[in-house]
Amino acid sequence: xxxxxxxxxxxxxxxxxxxxxxxxxxxxxxxxxxxxxxxxxxxxxxxxxxxxxxxxxxxxxxxxxxxxxxxxxxxxxxxxxxxxxxxxxxxxxxxxxxxxxxxxxxxxxxxxxxxxxxxxxxxxxxxxxxxxxxxxxxxxxxxxxxxxxxxxxxxxxxxxxxxxxxxxxxxxxxxxxxxxxxxxxxxxxxxxxxxxxxxxxxxxxxxxxxxxxxxxxxxxxxxxxx
Amino acid sequence: xxxxxxxxxxxxxxxxxxxxxxxxxxxxxxxxxxxxxxxxxxxxxxxxxxxxxxxxxxxxxxxxxxxxxxxxxxxxxxxxxxxxxxxxxxxxxxxxxxxxxxxxxxxxxxxxxxxxxxxxxxxxxxxxxxxxxxxxxxxxxxxxxxxxxxxxxxxxxxxxxxxxxxxxxxxxxxxxxxxxxxxxxxxxxxxxxxxxxxxxxxxx
Lengths: 226, 204
Known about the structure:
The complex is a heterodimer of chains A (226) and B (204). Chain A is mostly helical and 226 residues long. Chain A has one domain (26-221). Chain A has ten helices and two strands, in the order H-H-H-H-H-H-H-H-H-E-E-H. Chain A has a two-stranded antiparallel sheet with strand order 1-2. The radius of gyration of chain A is 20 Å and the shape is globular. Chain B has 204 residues and is an all-alpha fold. Chain B has one domain (2-198). Helices cover 71% and strands 0% of the residues of chain B. The N and C termini of chain B lie close together (8 Å). Classes of the chains: A mainly alpha (226), B mainly alpha (204). The interface between A and B is large, with 48 and 46 residues.
C-alpha cells in the first residue's frame, strides 16, 4: 500500500470512481444482474436486508484484500477453487458471528448466509477485479460494490416492509409502526387501511426490482444497451 | 406416496426460482433461447441428483452432531456442522468436475449439449441452496434426499424453460425501452411466481 501512496493520493479521482460507479452506472444487482438470489429473498424485513448487506460487504472487502494480496502466488489454473475456499472460510466466520450476536436475524436469514459463498457478486469481483489490482483499490472496489448491493436490498426491503406489514425494523431501534398498529386499529388502520399481503410474498420483490431497473434506466438512458 | 409428495412439493410449491430465487443469476443470463435453457436445466437436474444424496451422506455420517458415533464413543459428542459450508461447496465443485470428465468420456453427445454449462453450475446458488435446505429439512433417509434433489432440479428446469420460451416471443413486442431485457424478465418471473403460488397447499 505504501507504494500506492507514492504514486497517487489515497482518494484520487480514479479511486473515488471505484466507490461511486457501482452505486449506479455498474450496479452489481440491477445492471450486471449478479447476486440476485439473496438480494430478493432476504428483503421481507429491513433489518434482515441491512444485516445481509453488511455481511456481504464484509466478505467482499476481506475476500478482495486476501485475493489481491495473493494474486501473484495463486496459480491461474486453480484460482476458482482458491477463491471458493477463501470465500467459504470468510462466510463460516460471518455465520458464526451472526449466530453469536444477532441470533434472531441469523435464524430468519437461514440458508442465505451460506449462499453468500455462491453469490456471483463476490466471485465476480474477486475474478474480475482483485486478481489484477492492488489491495487498496480492491478494498475500495469491495466497499463500492457492497454499497451498490446494499442499496438495492434496502430499497426493496423498504417497500416490502412498509407496504407489506406497515412497519420498519432498523437494527438498534424499536420497531417503527408507520401506519399505526394493525391489531389495535390505531392510525390509518382505524380508517380501514389494510396491509398489502402480496408485498410479503416472494413475487413482489421481483416486481420491485423490475421497476427499480426501469426507473434507473429511464433516468440514465446511456444504460439502455443491447 | 411420500416420495411423490416430496417431489411435488420441491418442484412446484417450494419452487427454487419462484419461492427462493435460487440460481437467479444463470436463470436470467442463460434464458434467451429455449435450446440453451434446456441444456442448462438438464445439467442442473443431473448435478442436483448426484450432489444432494452425497451431501446427505456427508451430513449424516460426518457433520451432524453425534454423526461420528461410528468412529467410537470418543467421537460421539462431536458437532462439525459449522464446517458444512466448506464441505458442501468442496463436494459440489469436485463432483461437477468429475461429472464433466465422466460425461466427456462416456457420452460425447451429452457433453456437447451440456459441455459449457457444467463448470458454470459449481457456483450456481441452486445447487448449494438445495444441499443447505436438505440439511435444514432433516430427511429421514437417503431416498427422500434424492427425490428432493430431483424435484428441485425439475422445478428449476421448468422455470428456466418457461421463461426462455416467453422471452423468445416477447422479443417482438413493444416494451418501453428502459424495461427491455432484464427489467422485463424480472416482472415476467414475478408474474410466473404468482401463478405458481396457486400450487400452495397442494398435497397428495
